[in-house]
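Ticket #4471: structure export looks truncated?
Reporter: QA, pipeline team
Priority: medium

Steps to reproduce: submit the single chain below to the structure queue and open the exported record.
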Amino acid sequence: MLLDELTDQPGNTLTGDVISALSGEDDVCLRTGHPVAETLALLALKIREVERLAVHPITPTVVIEDRGVDTVAVYQAAILCEHVPEAEPAHVARHVLSTMSRWRPQPDATVLLTGDRAVCMRRFADRIGRTLAPRDLRVIEQADILYAGLATAEPTATP
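Actual output as written to the record:
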């Protein structure tokens, strides 16, 4: 079963409404100025996805999730640490994942796809039809560094 990306949900759904609220400032990283509330909202949506799977008529044996809980943890850690510069982003990402594990199982495997950061950022900007602001570029760069660092630190575990 393939779970759609949260940001691809139509606006006439609960998920779409939450994403629209987080996109209110037209920020590509879903920042409204309340990073803890944003993190909790995104985690709640990820929990909702698992709950939907639990009532699915056929229990899936494989679930492929684009931008899953690992992505929420890494990006939100980068965003949260903008507000608390003395915080360690990898520690914050691990804390988000640990908190999340109370409500949904950790993924059995996470596949980290990498590419040239500059090329990826240009493609993203082209896809959304606008130039990325310097603050967006910083979050994307920090997330890329976090992904790589967590994968290196725990090569057999999910970040």
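Status: closed, not a bug. The export was complete when the record was re-opened. Leaving a note from the reviewer for reference: The mean pLDDT is 82.
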